[in-house]
Amino acid sequence: MGVPNMKNFCHKNIVLTAILVSVLSLSCGTSEKKSEAEKIIEKSIEVSGGKNYENAEIGFTFRNRRYKSKRNGDMFRLERVVKDSTTK
User: Fold this and answer.
1) Under 8 Å CB-to-CB from 73, ≥6 apart: which residues?
2) Are strands 75-81 and 65-72 parallel, antiparallel or unpaired?
3) Nearest-CA neighbor of 78 among 86, 87, 69?
4) Dihedral angle computed from the Cα positions of residues 15, 16, 22 and 26, in that order, rounded to the nearest 10 degrees
5) What are the phi and psi torsion angles at 16 (to 5°)?
6) pLDDT tens, 57-83?
7) If both were cysteines, with which of 21, 31, 51, 77 could 70 make a disulfide (CB 3.0 to 4.6 Å apart)?
8) pLDDT of res. 8
9) pTM for the complete prediction?
């Protein structure tokens, strides 16, 4: 085994530091801006009832299947309702 090449070691550290700084600077800048899609979704929720959806029970049929959606603050439950084959 030879002695590690100090020039290569320093070069690797500089490259890793540059990558780290780039990633951190890119991630910091994007957290403040909302995409156009996020703005549209937020606006549509607001117009359609907004805070009413924080605590809601909604039943709906999708592709011939019955579903129930229940939301209580941060808790969310989605149920698929099926008829038992033994019941009429």
Assistant:
1) 54, 55
2) antiparallel
3) 69
4) 150
5) -65, -40
6) 888 898 888 888 888 888 888 888 888
7) 77
8) 55
9) 0.40
End-to-end CA, the chain = 81
Q: Cβ distance 80 to 65 under 8 Å? A: yes
Share of the chain above pLDDT 70, in %: 64
- Average pLDDT for residues 28-43, to the nearest whole number? 76
Among all chains, which residue has been given the structure tokens 């995409």? 35
Tell how far CA 43 is from the center of its chain. Answer: 18
Residues linked to residue 58 through DSSP beta bridges, in sequence order: 69
- Residue 58 CA to residue 82 CA, distance in Å, equals 16
Contact between residue 35 and residue 43 where contact means Cβ atoms under 8 Å apart: no
Q: Which of 87, 88, 65 is nearest to 79 (CA)?
A: 65
Amino acid at 31: S
More confident residue, 70 or 7: 70
